[in-house]
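Ticket 4471: requesting a sanity check on a complex prediction with uridine-diphosphate-N-acetylglucosamine. Repro inputs:
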Amino acid sequence: MDRFRVVGGTRLRGEVSVVGAKNSALKLMAGALLAVGKTRLTSVPAILDVTIMAELLRRLGCVVDYDPTSGVVEIDVPDRIGHRADYELVRALRASICVLGPLVARCGEAQVAIPGGDAIGSRGLDLHISGLETLGASVHVTHGYLIAAAPNGLHGGEIRLDFPSVGATENVLMAAVLAKGVTRVTNAAREPEIVDIAHFLVKMGATIEGAGSSVIEVEGVSALTPVSHQVVPDRIAAGTWAFAAATTEGDVEVVGGVAGHMGAALDLLTEAGTDVVLTDRGFRVTGTGRRAAFDVATLPYPGFPTDLQPFALTYNAVAQGSAMVTENLFEARFRTVQELARLGADTRMDGHHVMLHGVRRLSGAPVEASDIRSGAALVIAGLVADGITTVSKAHHVDRGYAGFGEALRGLGADVTREPDEAPYI
Ligand code: UD1
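Returned structure tokens:
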């Protein structure tokens, strides 16, 4: 177990690169199961979650070659694949639930352990289940496994999602491409990662219209062929660097960042007094003195992403004025708040709202990461804290960011990694 050791007081300066999105790469890897032969993915991030997904695919019978240095994953899918994803791997990677749709579509059956994952709320699977049932699968839960069966294949159907769930949209999309007939998904998620998966599937021979809007139409085909595909740039990593620059009053060019995928995030930063300009390689964020606090509520895309909410907390903790941060997607995603309070932030939490009154500086202290984004947001908080902050459970951050500490050092930060102290019990 490692922790980050952060010496406060640096304004981040320089350039940082973002590669492909974790939340797309993992789903594209699962999508590879839909076609026999070799799929090649590029710009895949060098993170633990990709290693876990690669292992899961190997256990299903695929030959997977993952080179974290070049960011290339090659997945050779045999004609006959396994259909069971074990708890051992699924509990380490909640996103492995996205093999459910491809497995039912390819094998007519799937057994996927019910995931654990990040400690950020209950995250139901009801929409995944009802979507697959509409496509003709029977689904039940037994002994901790979700068992889906469609011995005679899937058929098209009308799926209306009660909530635009990213995971449920992906699962039904990846099942519907091989179903007989037309599927219409309404109230679908619109995230750029959904569009990326749709592009990938269309290249493979699928017929999909409307990805990126609330209504997606799929006309099933009988088989798909493997392709090469570059993963869409990671908008959450890009947003992390945008907030890091604004919060530390720094000046950072986010190379590879796509401003058009940032939804409300860059607009909010701009309105609050941060300069954001497009460059030919991405965008540049320049903090101009102590910025204004801003209210923000998380929403499905193109609203403000829940994955950037912890960074909005850190930003507002040291901004000028007061702000209300509202979390609408995950009920328990406010663990960052109590840690920020340890650093001297002035916070008050009420249900899914947090009120913050900005203070000039935080005060370094030991804190603990509870998930990927909270860990990264606490490291950034350490940069605007007097003295030394340690952020334990650094492994959470490794799941979402390749070389987070190195990237920060490249921007001038005094951030190192060290072994964590042994816990008292
Ligand atoms: C994905 C992202 C995650 C991001 C989230 C929202 C990956 C690997 N993870 O997660 O980083 O924070 O989108 O942008 O891509 N829900 C149900 N029933 C369901 C499905 C979801 O009630 O069947 C609820 C969840 O409990 C949650 C909300 O819907 O409250 C959002 O979930 P969803 O959009 O599905 O997020 P994920 O796909 O799990």
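Notes from triage: The CA atoms of residues 241 and 254 lie 7 Å apart. Leaving this open until the requester confirms.
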